[in-house]
Amino acid sequence: MIRETIVTTQDRDGRVHIAPIGLIEEGDALIIAPFRPSTTLDNLRANPYAVTNYIDDVLVFAGCLTGRRDWKTRPASRVPGAVLAQALAHAELAVTRFDDDPVRPRFRCRVVHEETHGPFRGFNRAQAAVVEAAILVSRLHMLPMDKIEREIAYLGIAVDKTAGPRERQAWEWLMQRVAEHRAKAETMGES
Ligand SMILES: Cc1cc2nc3c(=O)[nH]c(=O)nc-3n(C[C@H](O)[C@H](O)[C@H](O)COP(=O)(O)O)c2cc1C
What is the spatial distance between Cα 48 and Cα 77, in angstroms, rounded to a whole number? Predict the structure, then answer.
């Protein structure tokens, strides 16, 4: 099972890095598997701790994918790490094993500490659609434009029907990025 969360890590100087990451559950362990190159990867090598933030604010997912990484955090309780202000809950992780790989190394992590901050208020289809669209945006360079257009058209239905203001804003940020990519692809097609 993979849980889509926001992972925060820190470099040697304590600078916080925020990135959407799919955490792989393996028994009691959580695996962080960053594709190279990655700041999350570099930070985990320098400071083998992370915080996984369980959030329903999809603006953070869309923001990180569109260059808006400056979200408010506070220090974690038990590890050198940072907790997002929006976290409904978070887990503080310590790396117990590093499996290197030329494409996608894996950090096996143990949960050191967990806290809950707010209630889970149920599923929202627009939130799920934004997370799917954020994944598409993270793969724009690998996917054919017609597949992107098809999936965006389908995901957009859930956004139209069920979004609140934050989901609409998140969707707009992602669609702006898709439009930029489309324009670039068209220019390259012409030249
Ligand atoms: C829902 C979601 C899950 C993601 N999961 C991963 C992942 O497991 N590994 C990864 O390298 N990137 C993942 N990405 C893409 C990263 O968030 C993005 O490429 C990020 O900038 C990672 O690079 P960084 O560590 O340099 O920030 C995911 C993106 C989204 C929207």
Answer: 16
Residue 154 has which token pair? 């389908």
- Dump pLDDT digits (tens) for 19-55: 999 999 999 999 999 999 999 999 999 999 999 999 9
Residue from 114, 130, 145, 137 nearest 57 by CA: 130
For a pocket test of ligand 1, which of 38, 103, 104 has the largest count of ligand atoms closer than 8 A to its C-beta? 38
Q: Is the CB of 52 under 6 A from ligand 1?
A: no
Instruction: Determine contact, residues 6/53, Cβ cutoff 8 Å.
Output: yes
How far is residue 50's CA from residue 17's CA, in Å, rounded to a whole number?
Answer: 10
pTM, full prediction: 0.96
Distance (Å, whole) CA 160 – CA 92 = 36
Which is nearest to 52 in space by CA: 110, 99, 100, 11? Answer: 110
